[in-house]
Amino acid sequence: MEILELIRLLRAGESDRAIVAVLGLNRRTVARYRAWAREQGLLDGPMPTSAALQQRLEATLPAAAPPQQVSTVAPYAEEIAAYRARGMELAAIRARLEEVHGHPVSYHAIWRLVRHREPRQPDVVVRVEAKPGSEAQVDFGYAGLTLDPATGAARKTWVFVMVLSWSRHLYAELVFDQRVATWLLCHRHAFACFGGVPARIVPDNLKAAVVRASFTAPVAQRSYRECAEHYGFLIDPNPPRSPHLKGKVEQGGVHYVARNFLAGRTPPQPIDTLNDALRRWCTETAGRRVHGTTKQAPLERFTAVERAMLRPLPPTPYDPAEWKRVRVYRDCYLTFDGAYYSAPYRLVGQEVWVRGGSRTVEVYTADHQLVATHTRAAAPGERQTCLDHLPPEKVPNLTITRETCRRHAQTVGPATTRIVEGLLAHRPEDRLRTAGRLLRLAQQPSPARLERACARACAFGAEDYPTVKRILHEELEAAEAPPAPAAAAARAYTFVRHAGEFVASLLGGSR
Known about the structure:
The model is unreliable at 487-495 (pLDDT under 50). By secondary structure, the chain is α+β, with helices and mostly antiparallel strands.
């Protein structure tokens, strides 16, 4: 208490109530000092100095003695001190005293005695101020419900905030999730808004940023590391359970946005409308306020000094990509974001890394070798296939059509075309795959041998796949072809007797 200020208020004729409101004293204390000042003749006449008033106060108005109260555990003070020296907690000390002395002991009495004998030293903190452009702090905070423009439904919403540590200028954006892709896209938007990149980013230990939180060796998420390499900033995760070390974004960022911009907005509004308003608010309201610590407007500090100290943006913005470790299934496909992508069949059963960007999906082996690149599927459930990834013996059955069979047969020869057309025209069974097997016989021997084998099969009237395959296997396609079916039939009928003889025999004619 400043005794000089109190005497001045008393000499000015202020009431006890007014002095209580100004100095925050108890009314009985004010009345006591008023009586003392009247006795000392201090309410009129020349005003003593502050030092003289303090000396007179100590000489004529000693401090009131505090009330005396004997602790109920005072008789056990030495026992408690011994227990504390052995590292026992207060609850254990209480239980041991009750066990030894046979009556209840107050826990709060023990706590007061220990606190009096072991006064706590206040934690000393050191404020660390960042240089312009050297640091930004980022975090997510819950922002209530907003309307999804696509469905019109109310959804849980989070606010992403990035605060430049020197100027306190901030960027904020409302989003529907805290996924890796969203986290990276918000960074991209923030850097574009600032027109540059700070040297270091201080995130919290959320899963989109850090896969292993640690005081000494934190590990950042792979996609976040790739983003940092693209923009050239360092990732400096906040130590676990230490939110006070990033108070610029905790209090001056997330909480400030929640208490000022988001407060009182009911019912839920469309998220795109709120984001437009939030961008204006960050510049016109948050940017122009006088900051409580710097005593300057954040936007002015940013424009005048910090903007020029940021690292320049790269020529192209970062394509937000999500890294995920998945297993290749038996069908040579892997699943990423609900869609299916092929991978080389030699990787079946193995774990691979998948990098999903906004336009492409890349597949890497465990030792980071790129083995596949696909166009990103437009919707879950779609399947992206590269035929080279599948076993060679399985590919023909996937690509075969009637048109391709006809075209292939025509390149081999007329006999092959005749047999293939017969297989394709067969009803009701579908012989398409059989026609494909027949045409694949041209790959092992040669198209010329297949054509001769088909010609021999046609000559015998056996226009089917097993016959052609047997002819090639026994190498009979080069043997002399048999006579035409019509000539053979004519020779067979040369030795047949006339039908009249058969009728005569039935009627009992001569033999």
